[in-house]
Amino acid sequence: MKVENDSCKDGHIKRKFMNIYIDNVQAKYVDGTHKVTFEVAHGKKPLGKIVIALFGNIVPKTVANFVAFAREEGYNGLSYKGGDLSDAKDGRGEISIYGQNFDDENFVLKHTEPGILSMANRGKNTNGSQFFITTVETDWLDDKHVVFGKVIDGMDIVRQIESVHTNGEDKPTEDVVITKTSVEEIKMKVPIK
Asked: Could you tell me the keywords of this UniProt record (predicted)?
């Protein structure tokens, strides 16, 4: 095992990563700053909890936006393939704590594995309230969607959501809903590929 400290310059901010090599495979640890827990139900049946670590040291503006909605219960009652908190409810998700949309903060972290939390958008600099969780490596999303967290518990619940029956528009025939949200500040190392 070999341990190195590494850094990456992004704009004016120098980011630190701890790289650990085990059998020549690199594992990166990112500081988790917040933990968000979503309790989820499918129809009237509780599915369980999805626990997500957020990376506020790398993307503080993006994390602040997400945490504000989570703390104010903005995500409670939202259905999967939802996340649109705007009055229009047209699926564009054009609302943030910064106004309508906000710019892409950076693309330091990548979509390297299942469980990555990332901002949904309609193109460059159109972040709002919508987000998604990956279920496979999705490198084609790199440098287009801002990664700001990772599922640390409840990936089995994400997989259950992934497999629910949907209609022709990929909307579940029975709603998958966030029933309760909680947020806490943390200090933990989160492994990320």
From this structure: Isomerase, Rotamase
Q: How many helices (H) and strands (E) does the chain have?
A: 2, 8
Give the helix, strand, coil percentages of the chain, each rounded to 5.
Answer: 10, 45, 45
User: What is the residue extent of each domain of the chain?
Assistant: 31-192
3-class secondary structure, 110:
coil
Picking from 18, 192, 181, the residue whose alpha carbon sits closest to that of residue 118 is: 192
Domain 31-192 classified CATH 3.90.79.10? no
Q: CB of 40 within 8 A of CB of 160?
A: no
H helices of 42-172, where?
60-71, 155-162
Q: What is the pLDDT along the chain (193 residues), one digit of tens a residue?
A: 344 444 454 444 444 444 444 344 455 899 999 999 999 999 999 999 999 999 999 999 999 999 999 998 778 877 766 443 444 444 445 688 998 899 999 999 999 999 999 999 999 999 998 899 999 999 999 999 999 999 999 999 999 998 888 888 777 888 888 999 999 999 999 999 8
Residues 62/173, Cβ–Cβ less than 8 Å: no
